[in-house]
Amino acid sequence: MSIDLSQFHQVFFEESFEGLQVMESSLLELDCENVDSETINSIFRAAHSIKGSSSTFGFAEVAEFTHVLETLLDQVREGARRLLPEHVDLLLQSVDCLRGMLTALQAHETVDTAQSCVLTQAFNDILEGRQPTTPSVPRSDDIDAEQSVADATHRTDVSAGEQDAAADAELITWHIRFVPDINLLRTGNEPLRMFRELAEMGELEVQVDAGKVPDLTGLHPEECHLSWDLYLTTTRSQAEIEEIFEWVVDDSDINITATAGVFSGGVAATAGTTQETAIAEAVVPSAVASVSEAPATPSPATAVAGTGDSAAKPQASKPAPAAGAAKSSESTSIRVAIEKIDNLVNLVGELVITQSMLGQLGSEFDVSKLQKLQEGLAQLEHNTRELQESVMRIRMLPISFTFSRFPRMVRDLSKQLGKKIELKLLGEQTELDKTVMEKIGDPLVHLVRNALDHGLETPTDRRAAGKPETGTITLNAFHQGGNIIIEIMDDGKGLNRDKILAKARNNGVIGAEEVLSDEQIQELIFQPGFSTAEQVTDVSGRGVGMDVVRRNIQELNGSIEVKSIEGEGSTFTIRLPLTLAILDGQLIDVGRQTFIIPLVSIVESLQPDMSLINHVAGGCDVFRLRDEYIPIIKLWEIFGVEPRTTNLAESLLVVVEVGNAKVALVVDDLLGQQQVVIKSMETNYKKVDGISGATILGDGTVSLILDITDLIHMAGVHQQSKNGLKLVASKTRAA
Amino acid sequence: MNAAEERAYDNSEMDVSGRENEQTDQYLTFIMASEEYGVDILSVQEIRGWESVTPIPNAPPHVKGVINLRGTIVPIIDLRQRFGLEKVEYGPLTVVIVLKVATRKGARVMGIVVDAVSDVYSLAGDDMKSAPDLGDHVNTQYIKGLVNVNNKMVILLDINELLGADTIPDVSINAIKELKESQH
């Protein structure tokens, strides 16, 4: 099967740039002292998505680079590594770098990997516990010269000739990371003097990191925002080097490490970058002499530096504006079959005829024409419904748009993993809403990758298990009622019950004593951070994914289930509404207000039998429905509405289900069911807790649509507590 | 709204009013607790009678609810309550002024409930006096300026400041009183 993937590139770029945006804003939000796990998770997820989709499209450079970045994030996320400000800087630089790479790819240019190499090196250094060389990689997309000058890497090669004699003694290259306090200059210390002294000890190479220098407007000339990486090759001891920093050691960050080789690695790499991006660079052979002579160029950078930095006189040269400047701002568009349009035109024609008929009827109406009026209105209703369906159909696209990215991905991955895999696509012509399609892409990628990596065995294992060598992954889509069902099936080894249980006990997701049914165990894989893969591979196994997959699908008002038989394979079933614009709703009354519950989430509605209701200490009522105990949420209480009655016996219970968590909502009355058009509350107001949107009822009034997931959250009833609740409930009953 | 947009917004205002009457802006004024307030007429979309609203759960008291304005969901804000004034029963004169408010997230349509609509004045920029600094405890950010019309003080409101932010500025009856006193 050959599919031209380039037709989906635009989508990939849009998604990736969005992801980078998320990363950037989250990184900026991050407080290193107090790392918010949700923020770090969202950064991680964005990186993971970019990695995933870029490898799908064969942009290996991007995928490789993101992988390194992601490894660091993963460690931070797991709490294995403390996030330092340097890491954040590095990550931000990587975001810039990735953006540059993607922009180049979008413009069909070759990717400049010099930047990413440097950053990769830095990440590897951190990961392996070495002191990072903290490359200050210039941002290629900087447009104004001032900024680029300030950001530029000023390097000063200092070679002190007099020290040549000492060369035959044992030469060690020391790496000194010097991050001074912001008040360094105010306390009367002069970094330049220190460097001069260092230069007398041996061969010195200085790199300045001006990345933290604020805008000119926000800059105070007496503040020191610079930090330095010094490479000193000398015979002197560490103590002697430390002596030089004696006066500043108290409030500055100084790290002296011996590096094995001569400073070739990091420096050589940065040199490449610096040249290519045409950044202000000054190599001053005999620093001591020229430093003092360095004229005070009236360029902002010198003004900024004015201190020790003036050693490197920036030759302000504008970096060539990146191709990204001319980035096409394509609006999203949709392709519609001509026959759909024709159909629409016909329907509008019919509508006009009906309208003129009714108009004529109305102008000379008397009671005898009542019959005709009713007929006319019936026809109008018929026309309107057809027109509505037709218009909706315009937004519908065949799912092949999403499916067609998989053959390439499966081919590449199977090669990489050494597995033989056949991909079967069924029901490619099944149509679904464009918005739904865009949002289902990522979850599907995750699921297919998981199936490839964890589900299917290697040919050897398969032979041993008595199965054909080639594994099969089947993607199937079909309509069922008002829903679209997407199935991802594999004939691999299935979910390993014991492994999942062990991992869950390990993670403390479930207690050691708890006995779970097969379904409950399979349900566990949707928990955050849950992965049983022993080794983290490029493909999957970081435990991101399943929880995100489920959340994404739930955001679309859909659901996901897994059925797995050990040794025979797994099937993931995704159920999605056909469109996001219209929803089947159940109208309910609470007090004097009418709300709408999405029909898909309703399991059943009933009149409660008071003998089946128990009050659990702590304020939660539970209702026993057959074998299950279901928490009761009083809508009037949550929404602050005056109820008709506070007596449960006179109310009705609507049992709703989201992601296998059931709750019973207390309502005063059940009204009719109808299709409602979803209107956003956020357009003119803001997100309201427990409400997913609003709609307009037949009489023109506004009615609010309940957000069940949110409601459960608000009521403090979590999915995880389901099992716990069962225990509590049964104990209460026993008492 | 960023600065550039803000300028554009201001300019457009000037263009329209400038054609009719040079150097003046038109303001729609309304009455609330016997004080007269004015809003830029170009931000007024329409004036409606009070009709019942759908309350929003757990919303602050000054947010009365939402209405259906020809298919759009529009929140209705009681300006009296927003200003900390005494709440009154809505009567036949109670009106809802539907305004287009520029926020950081783009234009929003909102309705404000006021006692009654009063007049439309053309005011030159020179007539406007900036709100006096009343100290830390009175927030005057939402006041664009004060104008004397027929020996009556009209408080011109900056609706973008007043309704654009999600937070409720510290607005109280005392602020208005102090404003009045400082004028005399």
Spans of at least 5 consecutive residues with low confidence of chain B: 1-21, 167-172
* Named CATH topology of chain B: OB fold (Dihydrolipoamide Acetyltransferase, E2P)
Q: What helical percentage do the residues of chain A reach?
A: 40-55%
Q: How many domains of chain A, as an integer? A: 5
Quick one: CATH superfamily of chain B?
CheA-289, Domain 4
Largest interface: A-B, 23 and 22 residues
Count of distinct structural domains of chain B: 1
Low-confidence stretches of chain A: 132-168, 261-331, 538-543, 718-735
Structural class of chain B: alpha+beta
Major β-sheet annotation of chain B: 5 strands, mixed
Q: How many helices of chain B does DSSP assign?
A: 4
Secondary-structure map with pairings?
The complex is a heterodimer of chains A (735) and B (184).
Chain A: H1 9-29, H2 37-56, H3 60-78, H4 85-106, H5 114-127, H6 145-151, E1 155-158, E2 172-179, H7 191-201, E3 202-209, E4 227-234, H8 238-244, E5 253-259, H9 265-276, H10 287-293, H11 300-305, H12 338-363, H13 370-394, E6 396-398, H14 400-403, H15 406-417, E7 421-426, E8 431-433, H16 434-455, H17 459-464, E9 471-480, E10 483-490, H18 497-507, H19 518-523, H20 546-555, E11 559-565, E12 569-577, E13 582-590, E14 593-598, E15 602-606, E16 613-616, E17 620-625, E18 628-634, H21 635-639, E19 652-658, E20 661-667, E21 669-677, E22 691-696, E23 702-706, H22 708-714, H23 721-734
Parallel strand pairs in A: 7-9, 14-23, 18-20
Antiparallel strand pairs in A: 1-3, 2-4, 2-5, 3-4, 6-8, 9-10, 10-12, 11-12, 13-14, 13-21, 15-19, 16-17, 17-18, 19-20, 22-23
Chain B: H1 3-20, E1 24-32, E2 35-40, E3 44-49, E4 63-69, E5 72-78, H2 79-82, E6 95-103, E7 106-114, E8 116-124, E9 143-149, E10 152-157, H3 159-164, H4 173-183
